[in-house]
Each structure stands twice: as structure tokens, then as C-alpha cells.
Design a protein that fits this description.
Layout lengths: L13 H7 L16 E4 L10 E7 L6 E2 L2 E3 L1 E9 L8 E5 L2 E6 L7 E8 L2 E6 L7 E7 L10 H40 L3 H16 L2 H5 L4 H6 L14 H11 L6 H18 L6 H19 L11 H24 L3 H19 L2 E2 L2 E2 L7 H18 L2 H5 L1
Parallel strand pairs: 2-5, 4-10
Antiparallel strand pairs: 1-8, 2-3, 5-8, 6-7, 6-9, 9-10, 11-12
Length: 396
């Protein structure tokens, strides 16, 4: 089973790949409970004050250069030189993914930035011959804010944002257990029609907080792996395994254990999120990552390839990103009210474009959405992702 950070993305249909190429934004999975880094993925985070680390992906590995920097803002510039089987670089601390750049095929490059504290880290590049390299952050840099009333006010807003987002995540997982419970009950009862009706709504509360789930190692793949994400089909579990049984195989034979495993995984997720804390930059990066989810798999139709219920997930990703942004907005408005207003308007634009596909309490079958209409959705997401990607650097 692959980890959440080593998912492979299937080739996009040509018409949609062209539409979404600009919509892909850098995601950054970070453990909510980690204090080792505040993650930023905005291009504006790369300033003259930041240390720059070059990471070249090759079939042999991904040695960072330099392999040691002072604490503070660090920008990782990643380039895939010639590694067909390696498409991403991650920064890990204690097994948690703090930052990453994904979907880099040979010749492509990208970057991500993190505000790092002193400590030992690992640069990882799954599928390389040597898939990790040591990276050290030493004392000497400083990310401390000046001692002032403005800094104290910002610190209070940051703490409030973290607490509000934690409450949101805990509530979403609580609702997830309820909606997924209806789904798994229908699966175990062999009720194909009931399970199909419950599938889309069951996923909504998971998709709204997926970056948080992805920070817990193998938990997200166990819950949400798609068929191309697993090397051993017999080890495939989670929502999409049952989705294939429902819409492709037209049978729930053998799915009861998968449903029970899904319930156990979601219960574990509930236990984990209750212990987490969140820094503003982590929340902001999670918002961007949710839009990355839309661009990578929802707009293309790759996510729910059998059920075509992608629009349930699409809206949930966008609403989850909007909720994360809402808790950060007081902090952002103190420094850049114009940016905050722009982002609000573009969230409204994306949701308005989605609304035309509403059907009763759900959504139209996504396979009926034309390629030109998918391109419009991709453009709306791209227009939102651009200013949203600046937030982490402003609040971090």
C-alpha cells in the first residue's frame, strides 16, 4: 500500500489536461500536531531572506544542496532531472510530511517554502533507488516577531484561528462517522441501491478536511486510495474499493470486511484529530491543498471514476478550503484587506459556477458535464488558487 504522499495520478484526458494545467497548485501536507514547521507554498514566500535548497530528482535519489541551513524561512526548489519513476519530493519530520512538491515529471520543476525550527529532517523522494536524504536545520535563524502590541494582537488572532479550525475538523469527523455509518450499514446489508445513494453524501465530510487525514501516514490511503494507488489489488480498501464493487461489479459480495475496516479507520481518524493543534500557515496550506485535490482529480473525473459523484467531493473540497480561509481572514485582513476581499469574491465565483450542476439534494452525474464546462470549472479554481496561495506567507 502506498502512503498518502506517494499517490500516483493517472494520465488526464487530453481535453481536460490542457484545461487544468494552470490549475495545479502546490499542496503541502503537514501534521497538525507538529510544531517543527510552519508551511508556506506561495511564490511570494520566496524572499531574499529565505535560505534556498536545491533538490534534484534522479533515479538514484534526491540529495538536498545544501543539506544544512539555519532556522527560519527555507525554500526548496525541486527539479525532476530524468526520473521517470520519481515525481515528488517531501520534507519529513518524525515520519510526518511537513511539505512537498508533487506531480513533477521529467523536466518539470516547482518549489515549496517552510518556516523551520532547529532539528533533524529527511528529504524523501519515493521510488528512487535511495529514497531519502538527511537534512539539518541549525540554530541561528530567527522567526520571532518583534515584541509589540501589533505582534501580540496577531498572536491572539493566530491562536483563535487554530482553535476555531480544530473545532471545525473535529465536527466534520463527527459528522463523517454518521454519514459513513449509513453507507457502511447498507454495504453490510447487501443493499446496492441504498449504498449507492449513501456513497456521495458519505464522502463529503471527509473531503472537506482531507489534508488533515493525509498527515497521518497510511490512514488516508486505507480510507481513500483509488485503484491506481495500490500495488496489490487484494490490499485495496476504503471508499473507492466499495465504489468499484457497486458501480462496476454490481455486487457487494466480499465487501462487508471492507466496510468494517472503513469504519475502524474513520474511528481512528476521530481519535487522532481530537489531539491536534494547527498553526495559521498549516491551515492556509491545507486550503491550497484542497484546491489541488479539485484540480488533480475532481475536475478531471478521475476521483470517482465509477460512480461519477465527483461533484459531491468537488464542493466539499471548496467549502473546506473556504472554512479554513474564514478562520484566517481576521489575521489576513489586518495586513492585506484587499487580498482577503479578492479571495472571498473568487470563492463565491467557484461556488456559483458549481451551483448549475445541483440536482435535488445532490449533483448531476459528472460524466454528463462537457469538456468545455469542465474547463470553465478549472479556470475558476485556478483563479481562486492564485491569491489563496499567497495567504500562508502572509499569516505564517
Amino acid at each position: 500500500m502506498l502512503t498518502a504522499s506517494t499517490r500516483r495520478v493517472v494520465a488526464l484526458p487530453a481535453a481536460i489536461a490542457a484545461a487544468t494545467s494552470l490549475a495545479l497548485v502546490a499542496g503541502c501536507s503537514s501534521s497538525g500536531g507538529s510544531d517543527s514547521a510552519d508551511a508556506t507554498t506561495s511564490a511570494s514566500a520566496t524572499t531574499s531572506a529565505s535560505a534556498v535548497v536545491q533538490v534534484e530528482l534522479t533515479p538514484d535519489g534526491c540529495v538536498p544542496s545544501p543539506n544544512s541551513v539555519s532556522a527560519g524561512l527555507v525554500t526548496f526548489k525541486v527539479k525532476n532531472k530524468n526520473a521517470a519513476a520519481v515525481s515528488e519530493a517531501e520534507l519529513l519530520s518524525g515520519g510526518s510530511v511537513l511539505g512537498e512538491k508533487e506531480n513533477l515529471t521529467p523536466g518539470l520543476s516547482g518549489s515549496f517554502s517552510l518556516r523551520l525550527k532547529p532539528g533533524d529532517y529527511v528529504v524523501s523522494c519515493p521510488n528512487a533507488k535511495t529514497d531519502h536524504a538527511e537534512f539539518t536545520v541549525t540554530a541561528g535563524g530567527s522567526s520571532a516577531a518583534p515584541d509589540s502590541s501589533a505582534a501580540a494582537s496577531a498572536a491572539a488572532l493566530a491562536e483563535q484561528a487554530g482553535l476555531q479550525y480544530r473545532d471545525y475538523v473535529v465536527d466534520q469527523v463527527s459528522q463523517l462517522l454518521t454519514t459513513a455509518g449509513r453507507f457502511t450499514a447498507a454495504v453490510k446489508a447487501g443493499d446496492i441501491a441504498g449504498a449507492k445513494a449513501a456513497y456521495g453524501p458519505a464522502r463529503v465530510h471527509y473531503e472537506s478536511i482531507e489534508p488533515v487525514a493525509e498527515s497521518f501516514g497510511d490512514l488516508d490511503p486505507s480510507i481513500d486510495a483509488r485503484e491506481n494507488d495500490v500495488d496489490d489489488p487484494t490490499a485495496w480498501t476504503g471508499f473507492h474499493r466499495i465504489e468499484k464493487a457497486l458501480w462496476h461489479d454490481d455486487t457487494l459480495a466480499g465487501m462487508a470486511p471492507i466496510a468494517e475496516r472503513l469504519t475502524a479507520d474513520l474511528t481512528k481518524l476521530q481519535t487522532l484529530v481530537e489531539k491536534q493543534t494547527y498553526q495559521p500557515a498549516q491551515i492556509a496550506n491545507g486550503c491550497v491543498e484542497l484546491l489541488d485535490e479539485v484540480a488533480k482529480s475532481k475536475v478531471t473525473g478521475e476521483e470517482d471514476r465509477y460512480s461519477h459523484t465527483d461533484l459531491f467531493d468537488f464542493e466539499a473540497n471548496v467549502l473546506g478550503a473556504r472554512e479554513g480561509f474564514a478562520v484566517l481572514k481576521p489575521l489576513l485582513k489586518s495586513s492585506d484587506p484587499e487580498l482577503a476581499g479578492t479571495i472571498d469574491a473568487r470563492f463565491a465565483d467557484v461556488l456559483s459556477a458549481l451551483a448549475k450542476y445541483k440536482q435535488g439534494d445532490g449533483w448531476v452525474d459528472y460524466s454528463t458535464v462537457s469538456d468545455p464546462d469542465r474547463r470553465v470549472l478549472a479556470q475558476k479554481v485556478d483563479a481562486l488558487a492564485e491569491p489563496l496561495s499567497e495567504v500562508a506567507a502572509r499569516v505564517g
